[in-house]
# Entry
Amino acid sequence: MKAYYSCLLDSKPKFYKQCFLLVHSLIELANVPPQHIWVHFTNDVDEMILQQLQALKIQLFEIERFGDERYCNKIAQLSNKNLHHADLVVLMDTDMIVTKPFIENVSIDCVNGKIVDLANPDINVLEDIFQKAGIERTLGRVKTDISKEETLKGNFNGGLYIIPKKYMKTVNESWRKWALWLLEKKHLHKAGKGIHVDQVSFCMTLHENKLPIEHLNRKYNMPTHLSFYKDVDPYILHYHDLLTSNGLLPVDPHSSNAYKNTLEKVNSFIHSSYRKFNLES
# Structure
């Protein structure tokens, strides 16, 4: 099975540091071949940053901003036809660190993702959107991961989407369509949740096309920024800018030993990465 790992790099210094950490973790901790890593970037990313990334032997691809030209830019990654040569495409936010190989455990026949941590947006807002869009809620409801409120199945946390090759074209076309529709109608904006346009439009895509989905365990997208008992050994840490003053991940003393051991290993990796790439902590 051939998997490509993809992220979107925007032109802010914090994203530069995040991107280096993500890419380096994929290579060093997850044993991903550099040529299987794609960093998509907007046209205003610093050229020196691109040269440093190129030195890692990864793939670079410039994209045009899309939709709100912020959160929706991630959708533009699927315009890269090169991604269609892989069996699976793993779309990741830059504020993630991969701790070990994980792709062998993922279904190649389903669109994979972890259900949202919290009910964002609220289930009533979601169902109102679906009704106005004329989309049948074919997949039903499910509990969110952390708060255990109800949401729609396929309302994945936007940090990680794993898409099989056979669904790439469908997802690309439908995801774009519904993102633009939401931005035009402003259904999410009236609820103060405009940041979830890309996430909700992805969920709409899954329901509209009745795509098979797999809800992943939180170890594949561990929210380190939320306060709850962390009892698993995570494959992927999603840290949402939550770092200590030294630029490391905070280790929750009330978590399991497996989780704390992984955090200690990752913090050692982060520390060495800061020195290797001359990044500010």
